[in-house]
Design brief:
By secondary structure, the protein is mostly helical. It has seven helices and no strands.
């Protein structure tokens, strides 16, 4: 039974991966344009509004808004301060928070979002101990598996 579920999950994952690869050509063009417009929400919204395909419009909204991506695709509902960290346009951020705040979760969502919409991106995970970076990779994997 477990093996059958794993096979079904792997098949769904491969289908989703193929769909993302097909869309990557279109998204690549938009991705470059969205990178250029980073930090200019009005222009980004105008760009998205011009798209006629509703599914592509929704995908573009996910590309622009990590919070919406987390809620809808990953089924993760961030707290208001976590939303701030997810919405930051900075390429690098420092989170100085108490234990169990969700720093690893936020880092995992940001890394997965970048990899999902900008295939081929270099994403560097650095930590003092292997267990810390391994834990972050496990979070990314769990989000990925739950999204398919």
């Amino acid at each position: 039974m477990r093996e059958e579920l794993l096979e079904q999950h792997e098949f769904k994952y491969e289908l989703a991966r193929a769909e993302r690869a097909r869309a990557a050509g279109t998204l690549g063009v938009y991705g470059r344009k969205l990178d250029e417009l980073r930090g200019r929400p009005e222009e980004i919204e105008r760009l998205i509004a011009r798209e006629l395909d509703a599914d592509l419009r929704q995908t573009l909204r996910f590309m622009v808004d990590r919070v919406e991506f987390a809620r809808v695709v990953l089924r993760f509902f961030p707290e208001p301060l976590q939303e701030t960290a997810l919405r930051s346009h900075a390429r690098r951020i420092i989170l100085n928070c108490n234990r169990q705040w969700g720093k690893s979760t936020i880092a995992a969502i940001r890394a997965l979002h970048r990899a999902w919409f900008w295939p081929g991106s270099s994403i560097l995970i650095v930590s003092r101990a292997h267990a810390q970076s391994g834990g972050l990779l496990m979070k990314i994997r769990e989000f990925l598996l739950s999204s398919v």
